Amino acid sequence: MRVSRKYRFALLGVLLIVATLANLSLGSVHIPLADTLKALTGAEAGRESWGYIIWNYRLPKALTAILVGGGLSLSGLLMQTLFRNPLAGPFVLGVSSGASLGAALLIMGASLLGGIGGGYLASDLSLAIASGMGSLLVLLTVLLVSARLKDAMALLIVGLMFGSITAALVTVLSYFSPAEQLQQYIFWSYGSVGNLSWNQVGLLGIFFLLGTGISIALLKALNALLLGEKYAATLGISLPITRNWTIIATGLLAGGITAFAGPIAFIGLAVPHLARQLLRSQDHRTLLPGVLLYGGILMLVCDMVAQIPFSAYVLPINAITSLVGAPVVIWLLVRRKRMLF
Amino acid sequence: MNRVENTSEKPLVVTGLGIGYRDRGKETRLAGTISFQLPPGSLSAVVGVNGVGKSTLLRTLAGMQPALEGSILIQGNPLKKLSPGQKAQLLSVVLTEPLSSKNLLVSELVRLGRHPYTNWLGQLTAEDQQMVRESLSKMELEAIAEQPCHTLSDGQLQRALIARALAQDTSLMLLDEPTTHLDLYHKVKILKLLREVAHTTSKSILFSTHEIGLAIQLCDHILVLQPGEAHFGSPCELIETGDFERLFPQDTIHFDPQSGMFRVHK
């Protein structure tokens, strides 16, 4: 059993490398794999522009995809364990709805306030900041409310309610917005792992490392939660501390990712289930590296599909993640006949 | 984590305990004032009618809800002053609530019992592994150790939960209705296993049950809870003082002290 789990981890590792290389060599400009490798190792690629494309466009995009996929999957795992609910995902606490409110306020709010920025369109960085602030605001509210709630289920419902409130506010904002701003907001809501500068990737990486670090410190408590909250408490686990840090880790991961890549559906919900199926374990010490690898791979694949190889079209990644991922989950469930949780 | 010092021989000493709920200043008191002591290496039962406070008593003893009054000493330590980590090394529980993850393997479930002793990552030492193996074998679970919990029968699952509590290696074990949903054979099997564990390991085991007949035959002590009263003693003492006779309305069920059994009035 141990040995086969090692093989499965090795398989995930190899797949991640293969997916990264494939992701780098595919795109609107065709670059042969050999030249991709050359450019990566610092050697002269076939054409000068190829090296530039690889280093300044495709490599940050591939890294972003890995961080986004892994980070969302990890926050999904945290939420599923905290809420003992297989349907929980990274956004159940309203992180993405907070982000969308922040983005909507920035893009569409300006025109509402007397048309100061009439034809003004928000920059990528200001969008990241605005949606990040939105996530943070919702998350702080959830933390405050959670201190007054005993039950994790009640917290789940509070998160959903915040989602409804922010969605309603976004609807009101978009009702009063001119077409141009509305379009930019819609494009933001499609999500994107491209368009990040190296600095932004670095910033995203910091969010990712902080969130993952906190999760590693929580591993033991998360395993105890598999028994249920009451049993976990009798094992000496402090429920309020565990709950708060789990929310903070999820907020850093999902909030940071949504700020830079927009709302990306499905990955965070599905990957923890896929990882449980593959690794045949409930132990978070096994699942944490598992979901990071699996999430990165799936996101790279989704990005490749969204690029439509050899064409100039790029499909919204938010739609692709569901289109690619949902059938995979259905297929796995039908094959195994049950949900592992 | 540091082991807690054993300052007393008695795993559990309860004095003048009042149990119940306090909600917005309104106090709901269950049972009477409870005082008893459990010696090491004994199996004891809590009996009483539905709603008299059996589960509430166990939850109060486990520190999961506050006592209304009185004192609880675990190995001589006041329960209120113990940290969650210390409590986890002194008392273990088996609850009626279902497991969060039914896909845990039996061995994984039992390993989680070692949590109070493992490092920050929850890694098991050779000593921990040994304790897990012993717990599995005491509950006769070796053959199904690698099965997920959702494939187990009710009796097997109950033994797995008890094995987890055993692995926690505490001097006091509290079980809430460990024999419900089981047929007579499996009820007896669970209680006999508990009795054997108590007598061979110097643990004190306290469980709530509706199986008064079995408790009389298998337990060293019984705590009888009644509205406004609580009596503790050996089964024989309690039969002599007539406590079982007063447990249920006499016109429906009466207790036969000769056979130690309840008879129904037809």
- The quaternary structure here is heterodimer
Number of helices of chain B: 8
Share of β-strand residues of chain A: under 5%
> Any idea what the radius of gyration of chain A is?
21 Å
Strands across the major sheet of chain B, in which order?
6-7-8-3-9-10
Runs of chain B with pLDDT <50, length 5+? none
Form type of chain A: globular
Number of strands of chain A: 0
Integer average pLDDT of chain A:
87
What share of residues are in beta strands of chain B?
25-35%
Q: Evaluate the radius of gyration of chain B.
A: 19 Å
Helix and strand content put the structural class of chain A at mainly alpha
DSSP helical segment count of chain A? 13
Estimate the helix proportion of chain B, in percent. Answer: 25-40%
Furnish the topology, listing elements before pairings.
The complex is a heterodimer of chains A (341) and B (266).
Chain A: H1 2-25, H2 33-40, H3 48-82, H4 95-112, H5 124-147, H6 152-175, H7 179-190, H8 198-225, H9 229-234, H10 239-261, H11 267-279, H12 284-307, H13 317-336
Helix pairs in contact in A: 1-3, 1-12, 2-3, 3-8, 3-10, 3-11, 3-12, 4-5, 4-6, 4-7, 5-6, 5-10, 8-10, 11-12, 11-13, 12-13
Chain B: E1 12-23, E2 26-38, E3 42-47, H1 54-61, E4 69-74, E5 77-78, H2 84-90, E6 91-94, H3 106-112, H4 126-138, H5 154-167, E7 172-175, H6 184-201, E8 204-208, H7 212-218, E9 221-226, E10 229-233, H8 235-240, E11 253-256, E12 261-264
Parallel strand pairs in B: 3-8, 3-9, 6-7, 7-8
Antiparallel strand pairs in B: 1-2, 1-4, 4-5, 9-10, 11-12
Helix pairs in contact in B: 3-5, 4-5
Structure write-up:
The complex is a heterodimer of chains A (341) and B (266). Chain A is mainly alpha-helical. Chain A has 13 helices and no strands. Chain A has helices spanning 2-25, 33-40, 48-82, 95-112, 124-147, 152-175, 179-190, 198-225, 229-234, 239-261, 267-279, 284-307, 317-336. The mean pLDDT of chain A is 87. Chain B is α/β, with parallel strands linked by helices and 266 residues long. In chain B, 30% of the residues lie in helices and 27% in strands. Chain B contains eight helices and twelve strands. Chain B has helices at 54-61, 84-90, 106-112, 126-138, 154-167, 184-201, 212-218, 235-240; strands at residues 12-23, 26-38, 42-47, 69-74, 77-78, 91-94, 172-175, 204-208, 221-226, 229-233, 253-256, 261-264. In chain B, the strands form three sheets. Chain B has a six-stranded mixed beta sheet with strand order 6-7-8-3-9-10, with helices on both faces. The longest helix of chain B is centred in the last third of the chain and has 18 residues, at 184-201. Chain B is globular. The A-B interface holds A 1, 84, 217, 219-220, 223-231, 233-238, 276, 282-283, 285, 340-341 and B 1, 62, 64, 83-89, 91-93, 95, 97-104, 108-109, 112-113, 115-116, 118, 120-122, 146, 164, 168.
